[in-house]
Design a protein that fits this description.
Helices cover 40% and strands 19% of the residues. It is of the alpha/beta class and 288 residues long.
Amino acid sequence: MKVLVIGSEGQLGSEVCKVFADEQLCRADLAGGDVRLDIADGERVRGVIVDEQAPDLVINTAGAINVPRCEEEPEWAFRLNAVAAKNLASACRDGGARLVHISTDYVFGHGGARPYEEADSPAPLSYYGASKLAGEHLVAAHCSDYAIVRTAAIYGPAPCRAKEGMNFVKMMLHLAETRDEVRVVTDEVTTPTYTVSLAEQVKLIATQGRSGLYHATCQGQCSWYEFAKAIFDVSGVQVRLVETTTADFPSPVKRPEYSVLRNKYLQEQELDVMPHWREALEAYLAAS
């Protein structure tokens, strides 16, 4: 099987490449890889997928993920998260490739009281969430053999390019080294998701899953404060951790207060292999 991984140099894409290392793998990225690719360039996307590489499977981990920049430059967000998704879906349809497209929990808004399932109605609060939701619709409209994978709060060994190489775990450990106290919000609840586990799940979806929309995060839920506390507990770091709220960190970005996802479609197909978020954190810190 020939696999084209788009965003291959990124935080998730680099792990996806590892799990497909035994396949005929082509790495595509705006920053390099085997193929330099701007997914907003429809002609170039079609050339790579239909004419040059002819993959059996395309996994798209690329897009506009810098959430503050999406608010400042909505045209940029929609070009990379919606128009680009249409480009990929159309090329995969014409080239006969299956498309796996990564999306986000930010398609949901306020008011959540239980984990969101795939059938729940989205209500994005930001241009980032809205542009990713538009991309989901365009993938489904232009390609019949697809899997849209919503995930949340990812972190892993590879640097996060949208956050200057940092992820939340690295940031907490850095702050603990450089400050007397660390303040973290209690009023945003999500599920931190380890990219190593997520990449394995993506492979299962790509190779065994039916077409459709999937939620794929680690199990359980926590506030960012609870996640920070677990980071310090597991790593044995001593620091004063202070509870705070989003009101203390004014931001132009509206973020969902509760964005926990349930992997219902995976569970129905008996394909859910995601660990609990704390187990995944322990694995990440042990490997770091």
